[in-house]
Specification:
Helix content: 40-55%
Order of helices and strands: HHEHHHEHEHEHEHEHEEHHEEHEEHEH
CATH superfamily of the largest domain: Type I PLP-dependent aspartate aminotransferase-like (Major domain)
Bound molecules: pyridoxal-5'-phosphate
CATH topology of the largest domain: Aspartate Aminotransferase, domain 2
Shape: globular
Oligomer: single chain
Distance between the termini: 47 Å
CATH class of the largest domain: Alpha Beta
CATH architecture of the largest domain: 3-Layer(aba) Sandwich
Structural class: alpha/beta
Number of helices: 15
Number of strands: 13
């Protein structure tokens, strides 16, 4: 396709997406809508499994399932041996974090520096594994726009900092963190740098060289429109020796002739032998479609739609848009006076409009710092139309007014 997504292109992409006919979907950040091509790729492999036997079908479709790895490498400007295919964002991020600790256990006094928007699941891993061993998890200050501040990070560094972790696009709003500027500080000081790109993959162009990360995790089901239960994990090749998986199997560490486990040299050391190959076929298709459309075109379209939605939401009485940051994503967070976010979500669902709502636990540091107990979240895709935005705004106008 061209470098711009036109209304005509979007109409064609919507026509090839069955969910656009049955839902007014504003939860693309929870999970987006797969295309017919992705559904067909999944179905085709399930059928192969049923007809030939799943193990035999797996061998026959090896080229297709490995395509996802090569396409993910293209998406990230990485090499295929730096990509692990996982079951979601947390399975990838958590496997890398646990492997980092297995290779080099946390010591009392070690420090992990995290952005204020770190995903709650990642924080749980850090607390369970690193804090129990006596390491400390500390928050890097944000600047006046709410973005993690690279200069504040620099001022915190000493020889005890072993890891910097950043959630690039937070789950609770439209802010985009300066991932490359944080990466430049990490590189300068030779500190390991993990990026949670769950919301970035498929929404922003990603160049892992530019970001300067050692590890980057992404989910298949969000902006990429891949199947639920898929994820991508990038590990920089030089960093692989610093990751010893917390557990291995016949795929990640097959036994050699002498009975010794031979840990794979590539990122697939963080995969498991058993996986849904049908979903990997679907993921490969979703990756192909995203690359065909072009990530610059996707980013430009999502940004224009989200900015427009923010302006229209802010004009509704009783609605407060909560997004911080300078550069913003397709996640639009807001609250409605007198209604809690789950009630807004339920009321809109009753009118056929799907949004998300988050409490504190997904992004506890940011929610607490901003005194927020919950947010309603309307997340857009390049598939989102002005008609759908009109339906969302109408549904919000129907809510019982208070305040
Ligand atoms: C920023 C961020 N990180 C991690 C996750 C968790 O992803 P998964 O459910 O694939 O493990 C999410 C899910 O919404 C997210 O938004």
């Amino acid at each position: 396709m061209t470098s711009i997504l036109t209304d005509h292109d979007v109409a064609a992409l919507r026509a090839a997406t069955p969910g656009t006919r049955s839902a007014i979907h504003f939860n693309h950040a929870g999970s987006s809508l797969p295309s017919n091509g992705t559904l067909d790729a999944i179905r085709a492999h399930l059928l192969r499994e049923a007809e030939r036997g799943p193990m035999e079908a797996g061998v026959a479709a090896r080229a297709e399932t490995e395509t996802a790895r090569a396409l993910a490498a293209r998406l990230f400007n990485a090499q295929p041996d730096e990509i692990a295919l996982t079951g979601g964002n947390s399975p990838g991020w958590g496997a890398a974090f646990a492997a980092f600790a297995t290779a080099s256990p946390w010591q009392p006094g070690d420090r992990i520096l995290v952005g204020r928007h770190e995903w709650g699941g990642n924080l749980a891993c850090m607390r369970l594994i690193a804090e129990r061993a006596g390491a400390r998890v500390e928050t890097i200050p944000s600047d006046q726009d709410g973005c993690v501040d690279p200069e504040a990070l620099r001022a915190m560094l000493d020889e005890r900092v072993r890891l910097i972790a950043l959630t690039w696009l937070p789950a609770n709003g439209g802010l985009i963190n300066p991932a490359a500027a944080i990466g430049a500080v990490a590189r300068e000081h030779g500190i390991a740098y993990f990026v949670d790109a769950a919301q970035a993959v498929g929404q922003l162009p990603i160049d892992v060289e530019q970001v300067g990360c050692d590890v980057l995790a992404g989910a298949g089901r969000k902006a990429l429109r891949g199947p639920r239960g898929t994820g991508l994990l990038y590990v920089r090749r030089d960093f692989l020796p610093r990751l010893t998986p917390a557990w291995v199997d016949t795929h990640s560490a097959p036994l050699g002739p002498d009975g010794a486990p031979m840990l794979r040299p590539d990122a697939a050391r963080l995969e498991s032998a058993e996986a849904s190959l049908a979903l990997r076929c679907g993921l490969a298709n979703a990756l192909r479609e995203a690359l065909d459309i072009g990530l610059d075109a996707i980013r430009a379209r999502v940004d224009a739609i989200a900015q427009g939605l923010r302006t229209e939401l802010a004009a509704l009485p009783g609605v407060t848009v909560l997004d911080q940051g300078r550069e913003r994503s397709g996640l639009v967070s807001f609250n409605v006076a007198g209604l809690d976010a789950p009630a807004v979500q339920r009321a809109l669902a009753a009118q056929g409009v799907t949004i998300g709502s988050n409490g504190v636990s997904y992004t506890p540091l940011d929610m607490t710092a901003r005194g927020l107990a919950q947010i309603a979240r309307a997340s857009v895709s390049y598939l989102t139309t002005q008609d759908e935005i009109g339906r969302l705004l109408d549904a919000l106008r129907q809510l019982p007014r208070q305040g």
